[in-house]
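Follow-up to my earlier ticket, as requested here are the two runs.
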Amino acid sequence: IMVFAKSTYNFNIDNFSNIPFYAFLGGLIGVIVVSASNVVIPKIPTMYTTLLIFIGQIFTGIIIDYLELSSISKGKIIGGLLILLGMLYNSNVDKKQLSNNN
């Protein structure tokens, strides 16, 4: 892909020096998340998997916003907490229904 990009676009390898180091961590973190998911997901219920992924995304977004913008959005925190509470409530309702059926 890089060979074709170089001929089509004015690609210069020196442009990589202008990219901050942490920008390259996305690929590494993605590999870690996929690998961990392959190990963890078969061992825990789907609801908890969804909760863990959601919590990770929300708090990672908040941390990135804080590092980049030097501020934390109260709306994002409140929205994330409301969604988290809703998912936890749903999980508890499902548990109660399962215990009542048995």
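Run two:
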Amino acid sequence: MAGYLCLWILSSYVIFGNGLHLEILGGRHEQVLHQKSLIRQKREWIVPPSMIWEERDNSQKNPIAKIRSDKDVERGVIITYTISGQGVTEPPYHLFVINGKTGELNITGIVDREQTPMLHLRGYALNQRGENLERPLDLRIKVLDVNDNSPVFSQTSFSGSVEELCEVGTLVLKINATDADEPNTINSKIAFRIISQEPNDLNAFVINKATGEVRTATFQLDREIHNSYSLVVEAKDCDGEERGNAQVTSLQIKILDVNDNIPKLNRTAYEGSVKENIANVEIMRLDVFDDDEQFTDNWLANFMIVSGNEGGYFRIETDSQTNQGIITLIKEINYEELRTMDLKIVVSNKAAYHKSIIHQVSQVKPISVKINVENVREGPVFKPKTLVIKTTETMKINQIIGSFQAYDEDTQKIAQRITYAKGSDIANWLIINAKTAEISLRKVLDYESPYVINGTYTATILAISTDYPPKTATGTIVIQIEDKNDHCPILVTQKTTVCTDTKYINITVEDRDRHPNGGPFTFMIIDEPERMSDKWRIGHIDGSRAQLTLQDVTPGTYKIPILIKDNQGFSCPDQQVLEVNVCDCEDGTDCRSRIISSSVFLGPAAVALMILAFLLLLLVPLLLLACGFGSGFGSGGGKGFVAIPDNSEEMLRNWNSEGAAPEDKAMLNLLTSSGSEKYVGCGTAAAGAGAGVTAAAAAAAGNSFSSTIKEQNMSS
């Protein structure tokens, strides 16, 4: 019979391995199962776990198990039993020991299930040489759980929020907690409950015992009464039984505001005043009270004028810091037209109302705000503010075209003590009478002026009061000018040059008159000289342009008379003549470029004149060099200039003295050199040489002058 090893264990389970056997110790006495009662399964044996309690001294039950080989009954066989695994060769160390001779397994320490819920061991039967006599036996020891752990919350504290007036059962938040004891046992089953609530005027919340969900227990949550709640919640294992371990945590629940309060004013009627003719001034502020949370849309007031502001004089807006309604006058009010105004104003919130107060909103009535307009001393005013004057271009200078007087708003009569002046007159066409406000013309009106837009010229007039401080009113003068057909259509270009192969010439017309006195225009060739219309014809006409076509025209210059009429059939009194120079164009050369290039050459006469002028410029320095300057100048031995006496009596002829008639005398020879006979003096020589005048000619021209000089020289 093959040997086997048995394992005794303090349990009601027994599984036999292949060679090593498990023997169960029943009660406090050993009971060895007979070999016939052993159940052999496959070669792989599965041993059910042995059980020990955590956190207890299990040594009192030693040995907790025993392994035995069936070869220990054979004679001469010495068997040594050993174990390995958790608690022996693996952490936690030194937990198990085995009797090598008997195979008894003893426990020596305390086990923590949360660290090692199952201990895995392996038993061996060795011979004297340390060899396995049997296949190793796997042994599992299960650690039984005791309730030694309390629940642990996932957070130290929890917070949530919920709207006021919400429905019962609204989820606020969910609490999470865990227990380290064995899962799915009573030791780790957690139950939640609310221990306390502040304020505790009503049971506002409930908690699900199993899930930890906190929900509302009433629909009477009111933020205006309590804006938050503090709860203390307990988590207890053992499903909340008395023996269970417990932990507590705190919950902070914020009550969120909803728009369940209608804004109210402290009065039902208001009254204020404003001066006339002013704008952009604050009239009054309306105080609003709202119990909803401040600085939220539930609290912020929204004002609206529902009646009394049809003229758009007022605006009401909200001060976001004080929640006041600010009524502002944005448009001037005339006391003479409007003396009191009654505004109807409703106030609501920026946010929509909560459904719980919808029925109250329809009962809210608008408040009344009465505005009184105060009369003030006013300045002049133009009524209407714009004066339209119809004129024509034929009106003359200084002609009165209209009058624009200002009125007194208080008396509704023509204003007194007023001075009138021009405000703007960009073309300087107008004259304003400072006393009567009569408007006359400084210049003749011109419909075609760039300052006239669509036949309209605009200027302004000022009415200035003599009060202190002075008040000014501005009126607008609109002058509508009727256009006269005072301009005729003329050719824009009156000369042009084309080649003989040109098909047509574009001619453009200009007329300063506007429609209907301007274009479109009509064109016609005047047959002068005769047969002119055979060579030139009017082709396509397009408004202000026409095409002049050529009919077998030979090179030359042609003057073509054209009759041009405007839209009214009016033409210029002078003929419009287009001068066309027709020439041959070779090799694609433009006729105009050939004419221009040929005109830039200089003829021989022009070149000769340029050379002669240049030579004359060179001759002037040579003539200056021929003149002697000072005594001893040059090599001719001349004595230089002869001093002319400064006695005026010798220099002038006395014609009114009595006595014989003066005698002609030879001219004084001022130059002693032989060359001095030809020219008179340095200055005279230079001048005479330039003009071709000799000394003899000079003597003939001034006998009295020369004789006087000679007499003076001889006397000296």
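The only thing I checked on run two: Residues 604-625 form the longest helix (22 residues). Let me know what else you need.
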